[in-house]
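Researcher: Please predict.
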Amino acid sequence: MASPSRATRPPGIPGWRRSAGQAALPFALRTDRDHWGDWAAAALLPDPLPWAQGLYNEVAGEPVDWVRADDLVESIDDWLPTARGEAKSVDALIGILRKLSEEVQATRGVRWVSELCIQDGRVTVKQSWLSNSWLKEIRRTAEELGELDEWQMLVDSLVVAGNEGLSPYSR
């Protein structure tokens, strides 16, 4: 008998995601990564609602958000090496994180975002469209869970790299 978490997963999605990741990997790892590589890496975390925005005039009713963030959590660690250093990937990850509990966001989420933004002690993404607002949103939860040091380390690193929007939160 399948485990409960496996039984509730949509059939075929994990295999599809693994295959898509392998197919996109050569694009995401290109050295010129000025445009398509960052899009390829970010697209590996599905975000169907924005994808469907242009269809509102064509389709009656609201689009269906078929992504269950809980199903993606175990794949994120495998995705991180492909997505490091790309602002679009940071936003894709935050889009998924916002669908998860605040506890997961303030623990695993901060670690994952740090891994995307900082490599070998050097900040490669100082800010994305969603990063500042997300970090501000989860600060209280990080503090309540005793994870404020990790949150603070990320914020301070981004501010030192030039992120002025988080400077009021920096030590």
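Model: The longest strand covers residues 118-119.
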